[in-house]
Protein backbone atom coordinates (compact mmCIF):
# COMPACT_ATOMS: atom_id res chain seq x y z
CA UNK A 1 0.00 0.00 0.00
CA UNK A 2 1.31 3.44 -0.93
CA UNK A 3 2.49 5.71 1.82
CA UNK A 4 -0.69 7.60 2.45
CA UNK A 5 -0.70 11.31 2.28
CA UNK A 6 -4.44 11.84 2.06
CA UNK A 7 -5.69 12.67 -1.40
CA UNK A 8 -9.38 12.03 -0.81
CA UNK A 9 -10.44 15.26 -2.50
CA UNK A 10 -8.37 16.70 -5.34
CA UNK A 11 -9.64 20.15 -6.28
CA UNK A 12 -9.37 21.33 -9.89
CA UNK A 13 -8.59 25.05 -10.12
CA UNK A 14 -8.32 26.83 -13.50
CA UNK A 15 -4.99 28.65 -13.56
CA UNK A 16 -6.46 31.42 -15.69
CA UNK A 17 -8.61 32.74 -12.85
CA UNK A 18 -6.73 34.41 -9.95
CA UNK A 19 -9.97 34.67 -7.95
CA UNK A 20 -10.46 30.87 -8.06
CA UNK A 21 -6.80 30.33 -7.15
CA UNK A 22 -7.25 32.50 -4.07
CA UNK A 23 -10.57 30.89 -3.11
CA UNK A 24 -9.13 27.36 -3.41
CA UNK A 25 -6.70 28.05 -0.54
CA UNK A 26 -9.60 28.24 1.91
CA UNK A 27 -11.37 25.01 0.89
CA UNK A 28 -11.00 21.73 2.81
CA UNK A 29 -9.58 19.75 -0.14
CA UNK A 30 -6.61 17.44 0.60
CA UNK A 31 -5.00 18.37 -2.70
CA UNK A 32 -5.31 21.12 -5.31
CA UNK A 33 -4.25 20.96 -8.91
CA UNK A 34 -3.80 24.26 -10.66
CA UNK A 35 -4.76 23.66 -14.25
CA UNK A 36 -2.95 24.74 -17.39
CA UNK A 37 -4.66 22.12 -19.55
CA UNK A 38 -8.30 21.71 -20.53
CA UNK A 39 -9.80 24.24 -18.10
CA UNK A 40 -7.51 26.88 -19.59
CA UNK A 41 -8.17 28.29 -23.09
CA UNK A 42 -5.11 28.35 -25.41
CA UNK A 43 -4.95 32.15 -25.41
CA UNK A 44 -5.12 32.21 -21.60
CA UNK A 45 -2.25 29.73 -21.02
CA UNK A 46 0.66 32.23 -20.87
CA UNK A 47 -1.20 34.35 -18.30
CA UNK A 48 -2.25 31.26 -16.36
CA UNK A 49 1.39 30.13 -15.97
CA UNK A 50 2.16 33.49 -14.33
CA UNK A 51 -0.94 33.35 -12.09
CA UNK A 52 0.00 29.86 -10.92
CA UNK A 53 3.62 30.76 -10.14
CA UNK A 54 2.43 33.80 -8.17
CA UNK A 55 -0.23 31.81 -6.27
CA UNK A 56 2.26 29.07 -5.33
CA UNK A 57 4.95 31.53 -4.24
CA UNK A 58 2.45 33.50 -2.22
CA UNK A 59 1.68 30.41 -0.07
CA UNK A 60 -1.34 29.94 2.18
CA UNK A 61 -2.07 26.39 0.95
CA UNK A 62 -1.81 24.81 4.42
CA UNK A 63 -1.24 21.04 4.27
CA UNK A 64 -2.68 20.68 0.79
CA UNK A 65 -0.68 18.78 -1.80
CA UNK A 66 0.12 21.40 -4.47
CA UNK A 67 0.05 20.08 -8.02
CA UNK A 68 0.10 21.80 -11.41
CA UNK A 69 -1.46 20.08 -14.42
CA UNK A 70 0.57 20.89 -17.53
CA UNK A 71 -0.48 20.22 -21.12
CA UNK A 72 0.15 16.82 -22.70
CA UNK A 73 3.20 16.03 -24.83
CA UNK A 74 1.31 16.16 -28.15
CA UNK A 75 0.79 19.94 -27.76
CA UNK A 76 3.30 22.74 -28.20
CA UNK A 77 2.94 23.86 -24.55
CA UNK A 78 4.28 21.11 -22.26
CA UNK A 79 7.97 22.04 -22.03
CA UNK A 80 7.19 25.73 -21.53
CA UNK A 81 4.59 24.93 -18.85
CA UNK A 82 7.09 22.85 -16.89
CA UNK A 83 10.01 25.26 -17.33
CA UNK A 84 7.98 28.25 -16.22
CA UNK A 85 6.22 26.61 -13.29
CA UNK A 86 9.20 24.71 -11.87
CA UNK A 87 11.61 27.56 -12.64
CA UNK A 88 9.31 30.06 -10.94
CA UNK A 89 7.84 28.05 -8.08
CA UNK A 90 9.67 24.69 -7.90
CA UNK A 91 10.25 24.96 -4.16
CA UNK A 92 6.54 25.60 -3.54
CA UNK A 93 5.23 22.73 -5.61
CA UNK A 94 4.72 19.03 -4.79
CA UNK A 95 3.79 17.40 -8.11
CA UNK A 96 3.33 17.89 -11.82
CA UNK A 97 0.26 16.20 -13.28
CA UNK A 98 0.75 14.90 -16.82
CA UNK A 99 -2.51 14.42 -18.73
CA UNK A 100 -3.29 11.98 -21.55
CA UNK A 101 -0.24 9.83 -20.81
CA UNK A 102 0.13 7.33 -23.66
CA UNK A 103 3.21 5.36 -22.64
CA UNK A 104 6.15 5.13 -20.25
CA UNK A 105 8.37 7.29 -22.51
CA UNK A 106 6.14 10.31 -21.90
CA UNK A 107 6.64 9.96 -18.15
CA UNK A 108 10.39 9.50 -18.60
CA UNK A 109 10.57 12.65 -20.75
CA UNK A 110 8.92 14.65 -17.97
CA UNK A 111 11.20 13.05 -15.38
CA UNK A 112 14.30 14.12 -17.33
CA UNK A 113 13.04 17.66 -17.81
CA UNK A 114 12.25 17.90 -14.09
CA UNK A 115 15.70 16.63 -13.16
CA UNK A 116 17.40 19.29 -15.30
CA UNK A 117 15.18 22.02 -13.91
CA UNK A 118 15.80 20.93 -10.33
CA UNK A 119 19.55 21.01 -10.95
CA UNK A 120 19.43 24.35 -12.75
CA UNK A 121 17.34 25.94 -10.01
CA UNK A 122 19.18 24.54 -6.98
CA UNK A 123 16.22 22.33 -5.97
CA UNK A 124 16.42 18.88 -4.38
CA UNK A 125 16.65 16.42 -7.29
CA UNK A 126 13.74 13.98 -7.43
CA UNK A 127 11.48 15.71 -4.90
CA UNK A 128 8.80 16.84 -7.35
CA UNK A 129 6.41 13.96 -8.01
CA UNK A 130 4.54 13.00 -11.16
CA UNK A 131 0.82 12.24 -11.36
CA UNK A 132 -0.10 10.33 -14.53
CA UNK A 133 -3.58 10.69 -16.00
CA UNK A 134 -4.93 7.74 -17.98
CA UNK A 135 -7.41 9.15 -20.46
CA UNK A 136 -7.12 7.13 -23.65
CA UNK A 137 -7.32 3.53 -24.80
CA UNK A 138 -3.58 3.72 -25.57
CA UNK A 139 -2.79 4.94 -22.06
CA UNK A 140 -4.84 2.15 -20.50
CA UNK A 141 -3.15 -0.66 -22.41
CA UNK A 142 0.21 0.77 -21.26
CA UNK A 143 -0.82 1.61 -17.70
CA UNK A 144 1.38 -1.05 -16.07
CA UNK A 145 4.54 0.32 -17.72
CA UNK A 146 3.42 3.89 -17.00
CA UNK A 147 3.08 3.11 -13.28
CA UNK A 148 6.68 1.83 -13.19
CA UNK A 149 8.14 4.46 -15.56
CA UNK A 150 9.72 6.71 -12.91
CA UNK A 151 10.35 6.77 -9.17
CA UNK A 152 8.59 10.13 -9.22
CA UNK A 153 5.17 8.58 -9.94
CA UNK A 154 2.85 9.27 -6.99
CA UNK A 155 -0.59 8.65 -8.46
CA UNK A 156 -2.37 7.10 -11.40
CA UNK A 157 -5.50 9.10 -12.20
CA UNK A 158 -8.52 8.12 -14.26
CA UNK A 159 -9.63 10.85 -16.71
CA UNK A 160 -13.15 9.67 -17.52
CA UNK A 161 -14.27 12.51 -19.83
CA UNK A 162 -11.38 12.20 -22.28
CA UNK A 163 -11.48 8.43 -21.88
CA UNK A 164 -15.15 8.22 -22.86
CA UNK A 165 -14.36 10.24 -25.98
CA UNK A 166 -11.31 8.06 -26.69
CA UNK A 167 -13.34 4.84 -26.78
CA UNK A 168 -16.48 6.30 -28.45
CA UNK A 169 -18.66 5.69 -25.41
CA UNK A 170 -22.30 6.46 -26.15
CA UNK A 171 -22.91 8.72 -23.16
CA UNK A 172 -22.36 12.31 -22.11
CA UNK A 173 -22.59 11.83 -18.33
CA UNK A 174 -19.08 11.33 -17.02
CA UNK A 175 -18.51 8.35 -14.73
CA UNK A 176 -22.20 7.52 -14.29
CA UNK A 177 -24.04 4.23 -14.77
CA UNK A 178 -26.09 3.91 -17.96
CA UNK A 179 -29.72 2.68 -18.12
CA UNK A 180 -28.93 0.52 -21.17
CA UNK A 181 -26.05 -1.37 -19.50
CA UNK A 182 -26.63 -3.70 -16.57
CA UNK A 183 -23.12 -3.42 -15.12
CA UNK A 184 -20.80 -0.52 -14.41
CA UNK A 185 -19.33 0.61 -17.77
CA UNK A 186 -16.22 1.92 -15.94
CA UNK A 187 -15.46 -1.14 -13.83
CA UNK A 188 -12.85 -2.66 -16.16
CA UNK A 189 -10.99 0.64 -16.59
CA UNK A 190 -11.03 1.46 -12.88
CA UNK A 191 -9.73 -2.00 -11.99
CA UNK A 192 -6.89 -1.83 -14.53
CA UNK A 193 -5.79 1.51 -13.10
CA UNK A 194 -6.13 0.26 -9.53
CA UNK A 195 -4.08 -2.88 -10.21
CA UNK A 196 -1.27 -0.87 -11.82
CA UNK A 197 -1.27 1.63 -8.95
CA UNK A 198 -1.27 -1.04 -6.25
CA UNK A 199 1.39 -3.16 -7.97
CA UNK A 200 3.61 -0.07 -8.02
CA UNK A 201 2.55 1.03 -4.50
CA UNK A 202 1.14 4.43 -5.46
CA UNK A 203 -2.30 6.00 -5.12
CA UNK A 204 -5.24 5.51 -7.47
CA UNK A 205 -7.43 8.56 -8.02
CA UNK A 206 -10.82 8.77 -9.70
CA UNK A 207 -11.56 11.68 -12.04
CA UNK A 208 -14.22 14.36 -12.24
CA UNK A 209 -18.01 14.32 -12.10
CA UNK A 210 -19.28 17.24 -14.12
CA UNK A 211 -22.86 17.71 -12.85
CA UNK A 212 -21.42 19.85 -10.06
CA UNK A 213 -24.72 20.85 -8.43
CA UNK A 214 -25.90 17.25 -8.05
CA UNK A 215 -23.93 16.18 -4.98
CA UNK A 216 -26.05 13.03 -4.55
CA UNK A 217 -25.07 11.83 -8.03
CA UNK A 218 -21.42 12.67 -7.26
CA UNK A 219 -21.66 10.55 -4.12
CA UNK A 220 -23.02 7.57 -6.05
CA UNK A 221 -20.14 7.65 -8.55
CA UNK A 222 -17.52 8.23 -5.84
CA UNK A 223 -18.79 5.38 -3.65
CA UNK A 224 -18.25 2.90 -6.47
CA UNK A 225 -14.55 3.68 -6.89
CA UNK A 226 -14.02 4.06 -3.12
CA UNK A 227 -15.37 0.57 -2.49
CA UNK A 228 -12.92 -0.90 -5.01
CA UNK A 229 -10.00 0.73 -3.18
CA UNK A 230 -9.45 4.09 -4.89
CA UNK A 231 -7.87 6.69 -2.61
CA UNK A 232 -9.70 9.81 -3.77
CA UNK A 233 -11.49 11.70 -6.50
CA UNK A 234 -11.34 15.01 -8.25
CA UNK A 235 -13.68 17.72 -7.04
CA UNK A 236 -14.74 20.61 -9.25
CA UNK A 237 -16.92 22.55 -6.87
CA UNK A 238 -16.88 23.38 -3.13
CA UNK A 239 -20.04 21.27 -2.72
CA UNK A 240 -18.15 18.09 -3.72
CA UNK A 241 -15.26 18.53 -1.25
CA UNK A 242 -16.91 17.31 1.95
CA UNK A 243 -18.57 14.41 0.12
CA UNK A 244 -15.22 13.19 -1.24
CA UNK A 245 -13.48 13.58 2.13
CA UNK A 246 -16.18 11.47 3.76
CA UNK A 247 -16.52 8.80 1.07
CA UNK A 248 -12.78 8.08 0.70
CA UNK A 249 -12.29 7.88 4.49
CA UNK A 250 -13.26 4.76 6.43
CA UNK A 251 -16.41 5.04 8.54
CA UNK A 252 -15.71 5.67 12.24
CA UNK A 253 -16.92 2.14 12.99
CA UNK A 254 -14.54 0.54 10.45
CA UNK A 255 -11.65 2.72 11.60
CA UNK A 256 -12.15 1.74 15.26
CA UNK A 257 -12.53 -1.90 14.28
CA UNK A 258 -9.33 -1.83 12.21
CA UNK A 259 -7.32 -0.35 15.10
CA UNK A 260 -8.77 -2.98 17.44
CA UNK A 261 -7.75 -5.78 15.08
CA UNK A 262 -4.20 -4.42 14.97
CA UNK A 263 -3.96 -4.21 18.76
CA UNK A 264 -5.60 -7.59 19.31
CA UNK A 265 -3.36 -9.33 16.79
CA UNK A 266 -0.29 -7.62 18.17
CA UNK A 267 -1.24 -8.94 21.60
CA UNK A 268 -2.08 -12.46 20.37
CA UNK A 269 1.26 -12.87 18.61
CA UNK A 270 3.27 -11.56 21.60
CA UNK A 271 4.92 -13.65 24.31
CA UNK A 272 2.38 -12.44 26.86
CA UNK A 273 -0.51 -13.18 24.49
CA UNK A 274 0.66 -16.76 23.86
CA UNK A 275 2.51 -16.35 20.51
CA UNK A 276 -0.64 -17.28 18.60
CA UNK A 277 -0.89 -16.90 14.80
CA UNK A 278 -4.66 -16.60 14.95
CA UNK A 279 -6.96 -15.39 17.68
CA UNK A 280 -10.53 -14.38 18.44
CA UNK A 281 -11.64 -10.77 18.60
CA UNK A 282 -15.18 -11.07 19.92
CA UNK A 283 -16.88 -13.44 17.46
CA UNK A 284 -14.33 -12.86 14.71
CA UNK A 285 -11.26 -14.93 13.95
CA UNK A 286 -8.28 -12.81 13.06
CA UNK A 287 -4.91 -13.75 11.57
CA UNK A 288 -2.10 -12.22 9.54
CA UNK A 289 -4.39 -11.50 6.57
CA UNK A 290 -6.83 -9.69 8.88
CA UNK A 291 -3.90 -7.57 10.05
CA UNK A 292 -3.09 -6.61 6.47
CA UNK A 293 -6.70 -5.59 5.74
CA UNK A 294 -6.83 -3.67 9.00
CA UNK A 295 -3.61 -1.85 8.14
CA UNK A 296 -5.21 -0.51 4.97
CA UNK A 297 -8.29 0.84 6.74
CA UNK A 298 -6.31 2.13 9.74
CA UNK A 299 -3.79 3.74 7.35
CA UNK A 300 -6.55 5.58 5.49
CA UNK A 301 -8.12 6.68 8.77
CA UNK A 302 -4.83 7.88 10.27
CA UNK A 303 -3.92 9.75 7.08
CA UNK A 304 -7.32 11.42 7.26
CA UNK A 305 -6.63 12.48 10.87
CA UNK A 306 -9.34 10.25 12.42
CA UNK A 307 -9.31 9.57 16.17
CA UNK A 308 -10.13 6.25 17.84
CA UNK A 309 -13.22 6.04 20.00
CA UNK A 310 -12.41 2.66 21.57
CA UNK A 311 -9.41 0.93 23.14
CA UNK A 312 -8.21 -2.67 23.28
CA UNK A 313 -8.13 -4.55 26.55
CA UNK A 314 -6.19 -7.84 26.53
CA UNK A 315 -8.42 -10.77 27.54
CA UNK A 316 -7.93 -12.29 31.02
CA UNK A 317 -5.98 -15.50 30.69
C1 LIG B 1 -10.19 14.70 -16.92
O1 LIG B 1 -9.20 15.25 -17.33
C2 LIG B 1 -11.06 13.95 -17.78
O2 LIG B 1 -10.82 13.96 -18.98
O3 LIG B 1 -12.01 13.35 -17.25
MG1 LIG C 1 -8.95 15.04 -19.45
TrEMBL record:
GO molecular function terms listed in the Swiss-Prot or TrEMBL record: citrate (pro-3S)-lyase activity; magnesium ion binding
Pfam family, one: HpcH_HpaI
Domain HpcH/HpaI aldolase/citrate lyase as annotated: residue spans: 9-238
Cofactors required: Mg(2+)
Protein name in UniProt: Citrate (Pro-3S)-lyase
Keyword Lyase assigned: yes
Keywords: Lyase, Magnesium, Metal-binding
Superkingdom of source: Bacteria
Amino-acid positions noted as binding Mg(2+) in the UniProt annotation, renumbered to this chain: 135, 162
Entry's EC annotation: 4.1.3.6
PANTHER family for the chain: CITRATE LYASE SUBUNIT BETA (PTHR32308:SF10), LYASE BETA SUBUNIT, PUTATIVE (AFU_ORTHOLOGUE AFUA_4G13030)-RELATED (PTHR32308)
Amino acid sequence: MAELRSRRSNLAVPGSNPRFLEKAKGLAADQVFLDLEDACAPLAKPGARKNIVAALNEGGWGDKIRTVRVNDWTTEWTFQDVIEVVGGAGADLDCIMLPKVQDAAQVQALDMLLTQLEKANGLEVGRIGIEAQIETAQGLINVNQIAFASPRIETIIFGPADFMASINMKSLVVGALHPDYAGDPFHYILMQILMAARARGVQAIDGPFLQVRDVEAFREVAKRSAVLGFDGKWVLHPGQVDAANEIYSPSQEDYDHAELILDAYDWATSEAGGKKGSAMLGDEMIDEASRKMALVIAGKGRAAGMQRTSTFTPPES
